[in-house]
Every structure is written in C-alpha cells, then in structure tokens.
Design a protein that fits this description.
81 residues; mainly alpha; 88% helix; 0% strand; Short coiled-coil protein; SCOC; cytoplasm; membrane
C-alpha cells in the first residue's frame, strides 16, 4: 500500500511540475506578445511621422521646382523671335 501512495505522490509531483512549466511558458509568451504589440504601435507611429515628413518635403521640392527657371516649361515660339 505504501508503494502505491509513493507512486501517486510521484505522479502528482510530475504533473505539478509540468503545470508550473506550462504556466511559466504562457506567462513568457504573454510578455513577448505585449512587447511585440508595443513595438508594432511604435513602428506605426514612426511610419505616420515619416509619411507626414515626406509630404512636407515633397511639397517643398515641388515649390522649389516651380520657382526655378530650370524646371519651367519653355515656350519655343517666343525664344525663336
């Protein structure tokens, strides 16, 4: 009888260790997911900022090109006269 009790205790111990291992693994995965989620949010924010900066720079370049005679369309008839 004593031997059977020891087997049950050993099985319970193994089961408890397995549950503990799984709980720790789940907690680690939750932290990883939280970290990845925070990183995604940061990248989205940076992406929006860069898009905005690109629009400003694009407008600036467009304004410079329109103000420069090098990029103006030329009227060939008026140059011939």
């Amino acid at each position: 009888m004593m031997n059977a009790d020891m087997d049950v205790d050993a099985e319970n111990q193994v089961e408890l260790e397995e549950k503990t291992r799984l709980i720790n693994q789940v907690l680690e995965l939750q932290h990883t997911l939280e970290d990845l989620s925070a990183r995604v949010d940061a990248v989205k924010e940076e992406n929006l900022k860069l898009k905005s900066e690109n629009q400003v720079l694009g407008q600036y370049i467009e304004n410079l090109m329109s103000a420069s005679s090098v990029f103006q369309t030329t009227d060939t008839k008026s140059k011939r006269k």
